[in-house]
Amino acid sequence: MYPLAEGEQLLWSGRPQRYVRRYRDYHYYVVVAIVIVGGLALAATSGLDYGGMVGCNAVAGVMIGFAVERNRERRGFIAGTTYLVTDRRLIFVSQWPPGVEVRWVQLAVLRPPRVRDHGDGTGTIDFHPTVSEWLRDQRYRSRPVWYPILPELMAVRDAAQVADLIFRRASAVG
Questions:
Q1: Angle 78-169-149 (CA atoms, 0-180°, nearest 5)?
Q2: Transmembrane segments in this chain: where (predicted)?
Q3: What is the C-alpha separation between 36 and 64, in angstroms, rounded?
Q4: Which of 12, 48, 117, 121 could bridge to 52 as Cys pair (CB 3.0-4.6 Å)?
Q5: What range defines the domain where residue 47 resides?
Q6: In CATH, what number is assigned to the domain containing residue 155?
Q7: 8-12: long-range contacts at Cβ-Cβ below 8 A with a sequence spacing of 24 or more?
C-alpha cells in the first residue's frame, strides 16, 4: 500500500528515533499511585476484613496492569510509525500486528509547528495543541482508528529543518 495520492510529491520521510518520555506520560502513573495509596489507607483505617483487603489489592493490581499495558501499547505504536511530509499533507503510517493504519492531516489546517529539542540530535514537532485536544489525545493515543489524531512527530532527526519545511509548505498551500 502506498499512501500518496496521484500527483502528490514526497518532500520528507522519517521515523521516530526513540520513545520520548515526557511529564505528561507520567500523569497516569501519578493518578494510579494516589488511588492505590488512598485505597490502601482507607482499607487500613476502616478495618476491612480479609476479603476487603484482597479486593483492594486486586483493584490495585488491575490499575497497575492497565498503566503498564498503556505504556507498552504507546511504545509499540511509536516503533511502527513512519512520518511522511508531502506537498499537501502530513501522513502518519503505522505498521503493527493488526495491520497498516494510515492517517493524515492537510497542511493547510495545521497551526505553526513548535519544536522541542531533546539534546541528542532529535526533536519533537507539534502544532500547539489546545488543552482539550491534548486531553483527548491522552485518552485515545492510538485507538480508535476513526478518532482524529493530534499531529506530532516524535523524536525525529533535524526537527528544526523538518518543521521549517512543513511551515513553508503550509504557508504556500494555505
A1: 35
A2: 26-44, 50-68
A3: 9
A4: 48
A5: 24-75
A6: 2.30.29
A7: 8/86, 8/87, 8/88, 8/89, 9/86, 9/87, 10/84, 10/85, 10/86, 11/85, 11/86, 11/87, 11/165, 11/169, 12/83, 12/84, 12/85, 12/162, 12/165
- How far CA 165 is from CA of 1, 56, 90, in Å, comes to 25, 52, 11
Please measure the distance between the N-terminal and C-terminal CA atoms of the chain and give it in whole angstroms.
28
Amino acid at 106: Q
Alpha-carbon span 127 to 85, nearest angstrom: 14
**Would the pTM count as exceeding 0.90?**
no
Could you tell me if 99 and 152 lie in one domain? yes
Q: In terms of DSSP bridges, do strands 99-106 and 114-117 run parallel, antiparallel, or are they unpaired?
A: unpaired
66-89 mean pLDDT: 82
> How many CB atoms lie under 10 A from the CB of residue 56?
17
Identify the three-state secondary structure at position 47.
coil
Strands (E), the chain: 10-14, 81-86, 89-96, 99-106, 114-117, 122-126, 152-157
Q: How far is it, in rounded angstroms, from Cα 1 to Cα 16?
A: 21
* Mean predicted confidence (pLDDT) in 144-166: 81
Q: Which amino acid type is present at position 154? A: M
* pLDDT range class, residue 152, cuts 50, 70, 90: confident
The owner of cell 516503533 is: 79
